[in-house]
Structures are given as structure tokens and as C-alpha cells.
Design a protein that fits this description.
The chain is an alpha/beta fold. It has 2 domains: 258 residues, Glycogen Phosphorylase B (Rossmann fold), CATH 3.40.50.2000; 189 residues, 3-Layer(aba) Sandwich (Rossmann fold). It has 16 helices and 17 strands. The chain has a 9-stranded mixed β-sheet with strand order 3-4-5-2-1-6-7-10-11, sandwiched between helices. Helix 1 crosses helix 16 and helix 9 packs parallel to helix 10. The two termini are 15 Å apart.
Length: 479
């Protein structure tokens, strides 16, 4: 008889469309689906959030229980989405007062929030006898799981289960003072050093130390973590032998200009020029822009790591130059100062700059379809998905060459290059790259050739999922 598909459980704070703040949510909404299609039994387990998806779907309660977190008794319910509409098993852990909130992040008790999530997960699966073949942990929010599995007597039944840890962004590590250790389930205190880094409990550091294999979301980012990891550089260098860089993919069934339900006009490679033109006209009308001009876009969080603080000066310098022929569209939120500056500039340059402060999924799709160029002046970019989305829609990326951007975008000045890159995250280099983009736009024949070329590039999850399956096979010796 054929064996059962191997069981992989992904643990994450985000999963699109349940709850998404950034690329982590996109990855967890896509990778498990591709693994399930490839024959693995795949679950995603995440906190319960009071979000539209949760309110609109039907869930069944599959577990109820309780445990102590320090001196605090916690009640736990686990819910499963009944129809597997995402293409994999989705489980939500609800704890009144901790895991029943509107948003994933931003609360003063975030350490207790994610510690309870991890404790509840292990309590649930050990009480019910669920034994996965691999537990796959994503970022610091789930970083304590391997330590708890391997060094807590309560979870001894899981000590043989291999774990994978994926670093989506090494800048965020979940630091907490050692006085929080009392909230952990009883563990082998001789192993306290596995939790510690520089005198505090560091969940991301614990993940790297304790997991069977760790991955990063691009090959280039794995190398960069040796020199730029917010204090964990030495740890990543020490553990390099069990690290693997795998570039994120995109879900090409969702991100497809030929069938994207969020677009007013669909198009394919054969009619990319006319299709993008119609979408640009639609977006330009909504924001009072001139569709005759090239359109440069920025989509993302207004955060220092994204280089968003450079945006106001870049925009001002470009739009103050009468010789520069372009319009700009910005979609994002975050740093209040950047938000205020972008809003002010949108009023100052009507007809030249359109802005939406916040995030709207539908608008992001429409911008990718309408824009000629996408700007990503990132200081840190572990993988980057925006440049992959943009290329799928025939929009040429203008990116700082770092991390995953360096792995996925090659400059037009090198053989077979298809994007525009620059070296340093500053306004001068970014502005020069944008001027190069405008020169490219003036060469219509080359522009259209590049549009068609980038739309043919394969950044789907198929290749990346195969690499994760190889990792699972190597650490289980069963697949």
C-alpha cells in the first residue's frame, strides 16, 4: 500500500489572506500550497486574528485545553478552516486576551503573545498525539519551538522530530529579558545558553542554534547575515554549515496579469504594451496623473530598511527638475514623518505625484499593472517580492543591489540583463538609476523587448518548493 504523504507543519505569525503585514504573509500563503500540490500533507498553524477572512469562513473547533504560562492560567481553542480553501490545512490558535486580536503586532505584551502561541501549539499536538514529520518555523515569533521540543520534558515525545527555521528578516529577533524565562514551560536549565545572546533571551538566535536546518529567503541574504544581522553576525557565521539560501517564489495563479481579478484590464506577453497602457490610463485617471508620461511606482512599508526615508527627497528632486518627464505613484505606510512628507508632496505636485497612505491589496495589483518602473531603494532586502511581482506584470524594477534584489535583478548593462540596479542606498544613486530608466523608456523597442523578457522569467514557487522538499527529505531520510 502507498505510504501516507509526509506531514509538514508550518508555524507563522502571518499567512495571506488571513493576516498579512509583509512578505512573510505572502510566503505562508503560497509555499504550503505548492508543497501540498507536490504530495506533502501541509498545515499552517497561526494565531487567531479578528480579521475578515476569519469572520467570513467556516471553522470547526478541533481542540480545547488549558495550560499555565508562569502563574497565569490560559485557555486554548484550536480551529480548523473546514474547506481547505487556501490549498492546505489552516489551523488557528485562540487564547482569550492574547491570541484574539485585530492585528499581528504592535502590542506591549508581544513577548507573552508569541510565547503563548508556541506553548499552546506544542501543548495541543502532544496532548492529541499529532506527530508531524517536520516542524517548519518562520521568523522569531516561532523561534523558541525547536528549543522547547528538544529540551522540555513535557514535549519529549517530539524530540525525534526535525525542525526547519526560516529567516525572513534577521533584523527582528524578539529579544526579551531573562525575567520572562519564568513564562516558559519547565526546561533543562543546563541548556539556558541556547536561549541566550548578549545577556537576553533571543528567540531568533535560539531558532538558529536549535533547528535542524535553517534557511534564508535568498542566497545573497544568507551571505549578508554574516556581516549584517543586528548583532547575530557571529552566530550566523558559526552555524553557516546548516544554512541554505532559497529565493522566495510567487504564486503565479494569483499574480497573473492575464487573469488577475483585481485588474480593470487583462493582458498577456503578446499584448503587454497595449494592456499596460489601458491600466495606466485607468490608474492615472483615478489619481489625476498624465498617462502619456512614464510612471514610476513605490509600494511598501515606510521603513528605514526599505529606504523609504529617501523617498521624499528623491521625489522632490525629480519633480523640481523641469527636464524630468515622469509621474510617480506611491502606496505605503509606516514612519509618520515619511507619511506626512509624501502627503505634503502629493498636494504640492498635483498631476505629477499620486499617493495612497495605507495599504490596499487591490491597488497594489493595479499599480504593478500600470507602472513602467518600480523603485526599491532598500537598505536591507532579504528576498523582496515586489520586484518579482513587478516583473510578472511587465514592470521593470529599479533596485538597490542587495540581498534578494541582487539575486533576482540583473542590470541592463550586463549581458542578458533586464533591470536597473544601483549600489548605495542614497538619493543620488537612486536618482541616477531613475534617469537611466527614463532613457530606457525613450527607447521604445528595447523597452518592449525587456517587458516581454521579464514576463517570461520563472519566479514561481515550483522551483523553490522543490528545494524545500529536498531539505525535508535530507533531515527525515523518509521522503
Amino acid at each position: 500500500m502507498p505510504s501516507e504523504p509526509k506531514h509538514i507543519i508550518h508555524l507563522s505569525a502571518e499567512c495571506y489572506p488571513v493576516a498579512k503585514v509583509g512578505g512573510l504573509g505572502d510566503v505562508l500563503g503560497s509555499l504550503p500550497k505548492y508543497l501540498q500540490r507536490a504530495g506533502l500533507r501541509t498545515w499552517v498553524v497561526m494565531p487567531w486574528y479578528n480579521k475578515p477572512f476569519v469572520q467570513q469562513r467556516e471553522f470547526e473547533q478541533v481542540y480545547t485545553g488549558s495550560f499555565q504560562q508562569g502563574s497565569r492560567p490560559l485557555e486554548v481553542q484550536v480551529y480548523k478552516e473546514k474547506e481547505d480553501v487556501l490549498g492546505f490545512g489552516l489551523y488557528l490558535i485562540k487564547i482569550p486576551g492574547l491570541l484574539d486580536r485585530e492585528e499581528p503586532y504592535g502590542y506591549t505584551d508581544e513577548s507573552e503573545q508569541f510565547m503563548a502561541f508556541q506553548h499552546a501549539f506544542l501543548h495541543w499536538i502532544t496532548e492529541t498525539g499529532i506527530t508531524p514529520d517536520v516542524v517548519h518555523c518562520h521568523d522569531h515569533h516561532t523561534g523558541l519551538i525547536p528549543f522547547l521540543m528538544y529540551h522540555c520534558e513535557r514535549f519529549a515525545d517530539l524530540r525525534h522530530v526535525p525542525t526547519v527555521g526560516t529567516v525572513h528578516n534577521g533584523q527582528y529577533q524578539g529579544w526579551m529579558d531573562w525575567n520572562k524565562a519564568i513564562l516558559l514551560p519547565p526546561f533543562d536549565t543546563w541548556k539556558w545558553g541556547l536561549l541566550d545572546w548578549s545577556g537576553v533571551i533571543n528567540p531568533l538566535g535560539a531558532l538558529i542554534k536549535c533547528c535542524s536546518v535553517f534557511t534564508t529567503v535568498s542566497e545573497g541574504y544568507l551571505d549578508e547575515l554574516m556581516t549584517q544581522a543586528n548583532g547575530l553576525e557571529r552566530l550566523f557565521a558559526m552555524e553557516r554549515a546548516k544554512g541554505v539560501g532559497i529565493v522566495n517564489g510567487i504564486d503565479t495563479t494569483i499574480w497573473d496579469p492575464a487573469g488577475d481579478a483585481m485588474l480593470p484590464y487583462h493582458y498577456r506577453i503578446a499584448n503587454v504594451q497595449s494592456g499596460k497602457r489601458k491600466n495606466k490610463e485607468f490608474l492615472s485617471k483615478a489619481y489625476g496623473l498624465d498617462p502619456e508620461k512614464p510612471l514610476l511606482a513605490f509600494i511598501g512599508r515606510f521603513a528605514g530598511e526599505k529606504g523609504a526615508d529617501l523617498l521624499p527627497e528623491i521625489i522632490e528632486n525629480l519633480l523640481d527638475d523641469a527636464a524630468v518627464y515622469l509621474t510617480i505613484m506611491v502606496l505605503g505606510s509606516g514612519n509618520p514623518q515619511v507619511q506626512a512628507s509624501i502627503a505634503y508632496l502629493a498636494e504640492r505636485y498635483p498631476g505629477k505625484l499620486g499617493a495612497y497612505i495605507g495599504y490596499q491589496e487591490e491597488l497594489s495589483h493595479r499599480i504593478y499593472a500600470a507602472a513602467d518602473f518600480l523603485l526599491m531603494p532598500s537598505r536591507v532586502e532579504p528576498c523582496g517580492l515586489n520586484q518579482l511581482y513587478s516583473m510578472r506584470y511587465g514592470t521593470i524594477p529599479v533596485v538597490r543591489s542587495t540581498g534578494g534584489l541582487k539575486d533576482t535583478v540583473s542590470d541592463i548593462d550586463v549581458q542578458n540583463g533586464y533591470g536597473i540596479t544601483f549600489l548605495d542606498a542614497n538619493t543620488a544613486d537612486a536618482a541616477e538609476a531613475i534617469r537611466r530608466a527614463l532613457s530606457l523608456y525613450a527607447d521604445n523597442q528595447r523597452m518592449q523587448q525587456l517587458r516581454k523578457h521579464i514576463m517570461k522569467l520563472d519566479f514561481s514557487w515550483d522551483k523553490s518548493a522543490a528545494k524545500y522538499m529536498e531539505i525535508y527529505q535530507n533531515i527525515t531520510n523518509k521522503l
